[in-house]
Amino acid sequence: MEYRDRLESLRKMVEDISRRGRERGRERDGNPASTVPAVPCGRGVRDAVTVTETAYSLDHVHGEYRVGSVLSASHRLVQVIARDFREFDGLSSVAFLDTETTGLAGGTGTLAFLVGIGRFEPGSFKVTQIFLHDPAGEPEFLEKTSSALEGAAAIATFNGKSFDIPLLETRYAMNRMRFPLADPFHVDLLFPSRRIWSPVLQSCSLSSLEEAVLGFRREGDIPGWLIPSIYASYLHDRDEGAGEGAIEPVMSHNRTDILSLTVLLARLAACFNESVDRGGARSAVEALGAGLHCESLGLKREALRLYQESLASGIPGNLLPRALWGALRLSKGLRKWDQCLDLARELAGSSGDVHAWIEIAKHDEHRSKDYAAALSAARTALELLQARRAITSTSRSRLEADIHHRIQRLERKMNGNRARPST
Amino acid sequence: MPKSILLDPRIKRCVAAVRELPPRDAEYAPLPESLHPMLKRALAENGIARLYSHQAEAFECVTAGENIAVVTPTASGKTLCYNLPVVDSILKDPSSRAIYLFPTKALSQDQVAQIHAITQPFNMGIKTYTYDGDTPVSARKAIRSAGHIVVTNPDMLHTGILPHHTKWLRLFQNLKYVVVDELHTYRGVFGSHVGNVLRRLKRIAAFYGSHPQFICCSATIANPLELAERLTSETVRLVDRNGAPSGKKTFIIYNPPIVNRDLGIRKSCLLEAKNLAANLISEDIQTIVFARSRLAVEVLVTYLKDAAMKGPVDDGRVRGYRGGYLPAERRAIERGLRDGSVTCVVATDALELGVDIGRMEAAIMAGYPGSVASSWQQAGRAGRRSGESLAVMVMSSAPVDQFIAQNPSYFFGKPPEHGHLNPDNLYILLSHLKCAAFEIPFEDGDSFGTVPPAAVADALDYLADQKILHRSGNKWFWMDDSFPAEEISLRSASSDNFVVVDTTEAPASPRLIGEVDRFSAPMLIHEGAIYIHEGQQYHVDRLDFNEQKAYVTKVNVDYYTDANLAVSVRVIRENDANDDATGEAGDDLDGERPVPAKSLGEVVVTAVATMYKKIKFYTHENVGSGRIHVPEEQMQTAAYWFVAPPDLTEGLSKEEVQSALLGISNAVANIAPLHLMCSPRDIGVVSEVRSPHTRLPTVYLYDSYPGGIGLAEKAYEIHRLILAASLDLISGCPCADGCPSCVGPTVEVGSEGKKLSIRVLQGLLEVGGESRDGI
């Protein structure tokens, strides 16, 4: 009984949301360049697959950004964000892709029933949505997906590397067909977004990023977790002759996702390059994240510049050591010794960092040859280490041995100096 | 010489039977002509110039396209029976693929080492990988596309491979062989599951256009062919002419001395096994001791560590080995056995399987392992290859043990058990139909293994009604936001484990020390229990049932704990077929409807752990008790029951009827497994003085698995045989008024228990007037 009640209330919730979605659908879509054709649904539909196209002007505003903003991002910037330096034919060849599925479990039993593909065309951004009314029509659904991808050489997704693309590849394989893009240039926005915003956001889901970073609030939108059950009841109700319009909220949700993909890419590009059309200035936190991203790709000068900017523009205290260490690592690589010393001193002063004191000791020992200063720095490091208990035992004892070794060597060197007075 | 312990007169007195198993010579066959030259060279490199006859026969059959089941004893070179044809086929066609299935992860790792010995020295380009829960994610992609031989276990196949078959395109397109080793372990509920996993495997292979051959290997059981055919849903050819040599073995049945004739109490079999093992250890004879439960393993490890300790420090010469130890710990123990640094290992039947622990000189079984097949498997751990060896089976006071001690020829003359499985058990079948529908949509007219299309369609319609599937056109599509394989465990208890957490050293940083399956948790890790791990005692401070965690601290006490399980049965459906009963037991009290002498049906079994006893080490006296607070567990299963008609119990008080029923139940619970050829754990027996269903004194025998696996059904068929054998057991027992070896201890069944049980059993056997042999 209780189970049935729960089921009933869930069904009611889905209906309410669908209805609200239908009512708000048009106002929320703002001012697309062409009107949105309603998806023909229900039993009257003969075709197993419907293809819908919606065009947005490049000036269509999504949150705080124009859909066209991303077009000012350079080819190379997209490569950096994608962590892939293969050539691709520019943003007009990128398919912004998002799927809606019958579940999140993955495996061969999860279907994609809606594929949305956004492409830039001269003067507009066009979203093509391929919808599967009947699982038996999957081969046709995949064929139409392939045609929508024709001419695309690259894809942009949010978590598509782990979810959407493997899922589509599985669907094609199940139907003995081949996904049209084999090992394509693929910019998955989840990874760089996490790198940049995870220090300041609780969650890096697309909807959290929309609210926190893109200034976009979804109103009346269905929650993503409800989508599988909406589709399942659509299939069921359709058999019973009902279900008209139940899918429109899902279609709208999918279009929103795709618009968010374009502006999120623009927003990410702005974190790397100030000249990209953007809403606000790059923050210190974003510069740090972009720096870490560049450093991981071996782009050292760019990374250093970004770390320095994050330091200059007031990075929050909890992230300060990360920025300082980033700058210190790269300055060392570029043999900018004075800068290194300044950074190490700042680290040593601001957070009592053991490793920073060791850096100072190294500098004093090997470069300024001031053994007394080096010894004092090494001893400070040792004291700090011994006062701290949080460091795990093995790494701690190794570190402690290193410092002892350093201190002994320095003491030897100082004694040696004394033993051999000027000859 | 392990046999020298027999010279001790105290030991000699207790020997109930000795069998010398003579050494046997090898039968050889030349290497097959058609073998790939590179493989011939590799074999030569491994010192193999000719084959045992069964290896050659296996190769011929497989090359001829047949499915085979190889049945030969431990250490007879079974692995070559499949490695030879598989490696040969890959050398001749590098696109060929094979799946090796082992029941446990430990065996998989062993296996890969063995194939590498053949394939690596010559750089044959054959890639063999294990693929299981321990395989790093980074390595998985390469294994999927490039692995020629994928070594895995049924659980991983079930959740990790089949539901992701599109990622294994290469494997399934070119799958030529499926190797199923340790076939005999695929019995009961596990076998019934695995039979369905293999049906799914074949369905997927067919989808990609391949039709693999099955190569099965088994320890000796009564019906290997039937088991292989039911498991694979294929026609299989038996290869059982063993060509491998074996050394001389002495097999002893040892019955501990009686300490109290009236109560029928013998010296504890654990203590006797301990003494025997301690003797062997002191002679540096590498010994394996098998105990029947985890608790018994730990108690023995504790005793033997005490006995074997030479200095003040535990030198690790005595180790335990059982389910619940973590993998790294197990690997270390296996290595220690191979390199000789471990002299004695005390194990549960986990070591019955082909884990490579090298050759042991002696095997001691603390109690009859529960089946003839297990006894020979465990005995086979001693002297695997050649040389003289000793196996001692120490009998406990349990009725079956005493039955065997008194009739040793019964044991030596008996064929090993049948392996029963029932892949068509409705619960199990439905579970796997879900998984199969998830993997590839079903179409009208599809069958599933041996399940015909109409039955498949019925089940699928049912799943569609549940809105798990969606029917469109002529297909059923998976339409549920879940991953069915993950919700289905192939072993009744493996996926649902409780963890044991040691909080002794730092309550803030607890240490995981072991695992306990859900079913055993109420018995082993209830609050107040002493949990023993590697001989160390832990007190269970808290059991968090919802989180499935037990928090323990190290203690050092002189007792262990033993829990009681209270079981009750409720009939929910009685089969119509019961009406043609062989004899009517009489009318029920209202005189409206005759009660059949025996019935078959479905029941709900409710089990709850109620209390535990504290038992002192060595003396085994009861030194206290406590209550257990855990939720009850329910299970729907198949049962058969029989009643004592009113004329048989006339003049008996309620207590006397109860005595008789308890006595009969005890005998039946112990005798039935011998005739059903199953493990005692596979069934349960309970009785009621007045059953709400039959309104008469009733004894129930049920399958210990949800849905049943055919044991109650078989028992129903051999009802009279079971009663007759139970009567033999009780009336043949040398005790005076009943003892644990027949009707149970007199404190439980009463002083008249033996007499009353015999009276009722005789009465039951006279009903119908048939001869006792006429089943």
> How widely separated are the two ends of chain A?
100 Å
Please tell me the total number of domains of chain A. Answer: 3
Count the domains of chain B.
5
Largest interface chains and counts: A-B, 23 and 25 residues
How many DSSP helices of chain B? Answer: 26
CATH superfamily of the largest domain in chain A: Ribonuclease H-like superfamily/Ribonuclease H
- How are the strands of the largest sheet of chain B arranged? 1-11-18-17-14-16-15
- CA radius of gyration of chain A: 28 Å
Q: Helix content range of the residues of chain A, please? A: 40-55%
Unreliable segments of chain A (pLDDT under 50, ≥5 consecutive)? 1-11, 17-31
Oligomer: heterodimer
Strand fraction of chain A equals 5-15%
Number of strands of chain A: 8
**Rg of chain B from C-alpha positions?**
27 Å
**N-end to C-end Cα span of chain B:** 48 Å
What is the helix tally of chain A?
15
Explain the overall architecture.
The complex is a heterodimer of chains A (423) and B (775). Chain A has 423 residues and is an alpha/beta fold. Chain A has helices at residues 2-28, 75-82, 138-148, 164-174, 190-197, 206-214, 227-239, 248-272, 284-296, 300-312, 320-333, 337-351, 354-367, 371-387, 393-419; strands at residues 49-57, 61-62, 65-66, 94-101, 112-121, 124-132, 154-157, 185-188. Chain A folds into 3 domains: 2-272, Nucleotidyltransferase, domain 5 (2-Layer Sandwich); 281-335, no CATH class; 340-423, Alpha Horseshoe (Serine Threonine Protein Phosphatase 5, Tetratricopeptide repeat). Helices cover 53% and strands 11% of the residues of chain A. Chain A has a 6-stranded mixed sheet with strand order 1-6-5-4-7-8, with helices on both faces. A two-stranded antiparallel sheet of chain A has the order 2-3. In chain A, α5 packs across α9, α11 (320-333) packs antiparallel against α12 (337-351) and α14 runs antiparallel to α15. Mean pLDDT of chain B is 84; it is low at 579-592 and 769-775. Chain B has 5 domains: 2-22 and 246-413, Rossmann fold (3-Layer(aba) Sandwich), CATH 3.40.50; 28-239, P-loop containing nucleotide triphosphate hydrolases (Rossmann fold), CATH 3.40.50.300; 443-486, no CATH class; 497-557, no CATH class; 562-774, no CATH class. Chain B has 775 residues and is α/β, with parallel strands linked by helices. Helix content of chain B is 35%, strand content 25%. The chains are: A alpha/beta (423), B alpha/beta (775). The A-B interface holds A 102-111, 134-136, 169-170, 173-174, 228-229, 231-232, 235-236 and B 163-167, 169, 437-441, 467, 470, 472-473, 475, 477-485.
